[in-house]
Amino acid sequence: MEDSPLGDATIAADLLDDYDAEPVFIDDSELPGDRFLDRELSWLAFNLRVLELAEDDTLPLLERANFLAIFASNLDEFFMVRVAGLKRRIATGIAVPTNIGRAPLDVLADISARAHELQERHAHAFQGLKPALDEAGIHIEHWTDLDERDRVALDEVFSGQIFPVLMPLAVDPAHPFPYISGLSLNLSIRVRNPKTGKEEFARLKVPTNLPRFVKLPDHGSGVLRFIPLEDLISNHLEELFPGMEVLEHHEFRVTRNEDVEVEEDDAENLINALEKELQRRRFGPPIRLEITDDMDDVTLGLLMSELQITEQEAYRLPAPLDLSGLFEVTRIDKPALKYPRHVPTTSVNLLPTEPNERPDVFASIARGDILLHHPYESFATSVQAFIEQAAADPQVLAIKQTLYRTSGDSPIVEALIDAAEAGKAVLALVEIKARFDEQANIGWARKLEKAGVHVVYGLVGLKTHSKLALVIRQEGGRLRHYSHIGTGNYNPKTSRIYEDLGLLTADDIVGKDLTRLFNELSGYAIEKKFKRLLVAPRYLRKGLLKQIAREAENAHAGRSSGIRIKVNSMVDEAVIDGLYRASQAGVPVDIWVRGICSLTPGVEGLSENIRVRSILGRYLEHSRIFRFENDGDPQVFIGSADMMHRNLDRRVEALIRLTRPEHLDELQQLFDLAMSDGTSAWWLGSDGEWRRHDRDDAGEPLVDLQNELMRQIGARKRGAGR
How is it modified after translation (predicted)? Predict the structure, then answer.
């Protein structure tokens, strides 16, 4: 999958698959039964917000193309996981959470209807973008647009670079209908033998190891011109079927169920069980068929019959299919058509105190807790430097770290290997069940083990999603703990496009909390209490519900109250019901959510004190923040958990409570900016509809939060109060 600001496997999976736990409710006897928004439709509304960015002609052109690609990639994963999970639950008779009072088949029909609308709008948006690309000197051509000189040049490209790798597969009594791999782009071809008049069918897979868009010669014009690979192949089919008449050819694409289920309790070896399941993933049942809108009924009937696809699952779209291929176009080197380059700054609290002094992460942390805000502040000079310095420091005795997702060339992993080879005790908790990264994480786990790292895979039945690192350093005859707790993965690549927070601290209480938590994850310890952490699955929901209830009590008593939450998804019914009751008590509640939101704001008597906003842009809003006014003594947490059943019931998640007043103020100001009517955002209405607010009454653009943070954080100086 492509890394992208809103839709690669790393994050789309964060919004997906939350089916295997039953909802947890608090007393809901006085709350209306229709108080939850459908979460599948809410996810599709999130992807519509992505599409609206692609349609926004005020954004740089190649960024709009990127959002088109992100939308396509997101929707693929939605079908592979969420629709697949819903179908699995329907087939097995399991209830569908957050769809209370609705028949599951009705839910599926609503999803299909909405997905059809969105895919058609997506295709239309691409057609609308093409003239702007043409004007900018980037032409995506069709074969019929080409002159003879172009066609001769492409004939040579086809013969020399494409023809040898093509594999047409006939379908007849001697050749059964071939397996169609998920997300592959294919050509359906009907040919006729001119001697016998007999018609035959063949399938041709468009190679995935060739560029999706073939570059045409510019003939000295300087214009960049491309033709889709499938279009080029389609116009050379006579070379693949010599002596036959090509009657029809059309594009099609299949999405399969790629959900992975591993029975951990029965598996002698989790890695072996997972590897077998990953092999089965390739052969999951089809759940969506995309076809070009000119496909004839005979071919469509054959595909639907062989793939066992219903009409509801077939999507007719104009060519080209699979617009995630536009990721290739967005890599064109035209800076003027992209967001202006932003170089992250080094946190002022990690800068040396004296000129020409070498940075020392441990000395900086020892001076006080450091709150990091990526990608505005550099991951490389903070978190990565923390692990690399620990690996090289002879005073460091041990390093313990969780790894949920990391990049293919991760300096974090290399630093852990270096530390182990240097004789330090290194523990890496590698979550090999991280969706769509399973195979990569298995590879990293084995590489770490070979280097002498103690690798563990967490607790049976739970994913370890927390973002934790602990360094034990010998100083002056005693051991000192240096800790990092974050909201994002230890992934240097995605840290450049994901917005996340992290805390570096030498607080001994936090260090002891992490020591106990790592012991629980690697051994058989059962920890019952943490001082500055809220940890799922045992305590996190309870802790948050207690904080929410306290705000309601304060409001009833006339004391100051308020709740502000920033998450990727707000789905958990118990938490939502708690927020409804807080609103009924008069507590002002602000929810800042990137993706799914099942909470309905602004309903009189239920949620009139709740506001919900969503912000999307060049960076993916990924941090999780929980702020409770607590009668003037704010309790503020950051961490890894979203408000979803899986995060609270089936994952090890950790939130850390912040204590420094300047950190509390910084996050309060962040919320003030995000929730301001003068900031560009989508607002969720009491009717369940999201509406974009990006201009004021005079038609002027509202403040872009991410641009404003770039400006503010880039202007920070040492001693400025952080």
Answer: An intermediate of this reaction is the autophosphorylated ppk in which a phosphate is covalently linked to a histidine residue through a N-P bond.
- Tokens of residue 95, six digits: 């209830």
List CB contacts of 94: < 8 A, sequence separation 6 or more: 19
Q: Which of 122, 465, 484, 645 is catalytic?
A: 465
User: Do residues 633 and 498 share a domain?
Assistant: no
pTM, 2 dp: 0.90
Range of the domain at 209: 135-330
Backbone φ and ψ for 309, nearest 5 degrees, come out as -105, 140
Q: How far apart are CA 175 and CA 400, in angstroms?
A: 55
pLDDT, residue 698, reads 93
At 67-88, the pLDDT tens digits run 999 999 999 999 998 888 888 7
308 falls within a domain? yes
Pairing relation of β-strands 478-486 and 314-317? Answer: unpaired
What per-residue confidence (pLDDT) applies to 463? 81
Q: What is the CATH number of the domain that holds 219?
A: 3.30.1840.10
Instruction: Determine how many CB atoms are found less than 10 A away from the CB of residue 475.
Output: 12
Inside any domain, residue 339: no
Verify that 298 and 209 share a domain, yes or no: yes
pLDDT at 94: 63
Q: Side chain identity at 237, as an amino acid letter?
A: L
Question: Per-residue pLDDT averaged across 258-267, rounded?
Answer: 50
Q: Is 594 among the annotated ligand-binding positions?
A: yes
Report the pLDDT averaged over residues 426-437. 70
372-412 confidence digits (pLDDT tens): 999 999 999 999 999 999 999 999 999 999 987 665 568 99
Domain membership of residue 86 (yes or no) is: yes
How distant, in Å, are the alpha carbons of 225, 275, 351, 353, 586 from that of 480?
A: 60, 40, 22, 22, 45
Among 281, 303, 330, residue at a domain's last position:
330
SS3 289: strand
Residues 558 and 687 both lie in one domain: yes
Same domain, 319 and 418: no
pLDDT at 438 over 80: no
* Tokens 């070009």 -> residue: 292
Residue 681 has pLDDT above 90, yes or no: yes
Which residues 6+ apart lie within 8 Å of 238 measured at CB?
Answer: 246
Q: Which of the four pLDDT bands, split at 50, 70 and 90, describes residue 520? A: confident
Closest CA relative to residue 401, chosen from 455, 475, 460:
455
Q: How far is CA 429 from the centre of its chain?
A: 21
Q: Is 405 annotated as a binding residue?
A: yes
Instruction: Of 653, 496, 642, 570, give the one whose Cα is nearest residue 14.
Output: 642
Please tell me the predicted confidence (pLDDT) of residue 377: 97
15 in any annotated domain: no
Three-state DSSP class for 306? helix
Domain final residue, candidates 504, 527, 550: 527
Whether residues 143 and 245 share a domain: the answer is yes
CATH number assigned to the domain comprising residue 611: 3.30.870.10
CA 81 – CA 74 distance, rounded (Å): 11
Selection from 650, 642, 579, 684 nearest residue 15 by Cα: 642
Does 550 share its domain with 517? no
Does residue 261 have a pLDDT over 60?
no
Residue 631: pLDDT band by 50, 70, 90 thresholds?
Answer: very high
Cα 684 to Cα 692: distance, rounded to the nearest angstrom = 9
| Side chain identity at residue 94, one-letter code | I
Where are the alpha helices (H) located in 78-168, listed in sequence order? 84-92, 104-135, 148-157
On whether the CB atoms of residues 580 and 648 are closer than 8 A, the answer is no
Residue 630 CA to its chain's centroid (Å)? 33
Q: Is 142 marked active-site?
A: no
Same domain for 93 and 204, yes or no, is: no
- Res 499: pLDDT: 97
Eight-state DSSP code of residue 485: E
d(CA 347, CA 350) in angstroms, rounded, equals 5
The answer to whether the annotation marks 657 as part of a ligand binding site is no
Q: How far is CA 240 from the centre of its chain?
A: 40
